[in-house]
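Async update (no meeting this week)

Hi team, since we skipped the sync, here's where things stand on the single-chain job. The sequence we agreed to prioritize is pasted below, unchanged from the tracker. I ran it this morning and attached the output directly underneath so nobody has to dig for it. Comments welcome in thread, and please keep replies under the output.
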Amino acid sequence: MNSLNNSRHVELSEKLKTKLKRVEDLLKETESVAIAYSGGVDSTLLLKIAYNVLGNHVIAVYAESPLQPEREKKEVLKFAKQLGVRLITLKIDELKHDAFRSNPPNRCYYCKTMIFSKIKEIAGDHGVSVVADGSNHDDQSDFRPGAKALKEKGVRSPLQEAKLTKEEIRELSRYYELPTWDKDALACLATRIPYGEAVTRKKLKMIDR
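Output:
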């Protein structure tokens, strides 16, 4: 079904095998799914498992935004092509919205609301029943105002539902020989700007450089 082979030299524990099967079962239940794909460790693993389970009933949606480093798009396109999954690029500009640009502590809520509203539209246009993201179990202990937006939009988080931690996600990524298994955590460029200080294109480009 794809060109990425499982690694035969990584042995999974029974606990991790059980969690992996849980993710697979959750994805099978959707019948079709749109994965919010950023190119990071979590969403890359989720996309790989989803494609293993559902094949052409999976679409990946990449949000091309001023908040993302330019180099990420090239890696996203490369992996999607290698995997063989259908990739849709969504162009979105959070800086057009005052609530986001003013940079309040719940900035991520406005960003996620914008992105997942559009992804749900794309999913509907393609006859896809469920939208999913790569949130993991560890994310629940962090301050993540974006999680409220996911809940409001009915977004599923199979890795989180299966209680997969970041460390376990890296281990599974190694098992599948994914190029992201040891990739550094990637936060959006706006996280480098202190709350209350306006988010501007000039600042984002400077941070990206």
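Quick observations from my side:
The chain has nine helices and four strands.
The chain has a mean pLDDT of 92.
Reply here if anything looks off.
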